[in-house]
Design brief:
This protein is an alpha+beta fold and about 55 residues long. The chain has one domain. Helix content is about 40%, strand content about 25%. The protein is built from two helices and two strands, in the order αββα. Strand 1 and strand 2 form a beta hairpin. The longest helix has 14 residues. It is globular. The termini are far apart.
Length: about 55
């Protein structure tokens, strides 16, 4: 892992820095990962259902 840390909303990071995966960290422990595919699937589901609120 790199020592240079970038912190921002996942979509911003992914687009600006061409990052495909973003780790989710809680108290210095990696607890998950978000991929571009994850974000796209959520956007598609919301568009199909007309639901614009986040869950």
């Amino acid at each position: 892992m790199t020592t240079h840390l970038i912190s921002a909303p996942p979509v911003d990071l992914m687009m600006q820095h061409r990052i495909n995966n973003v780790p989710i960290v809680d108290r210095e422990r990696v607890v998950g990962i978000i991929t571009r595919t994850d974000l796209l699937l959520v956007l598609i589901r919301h568009a199909e259902t007309g639901n614009h609120a986040t869950r």
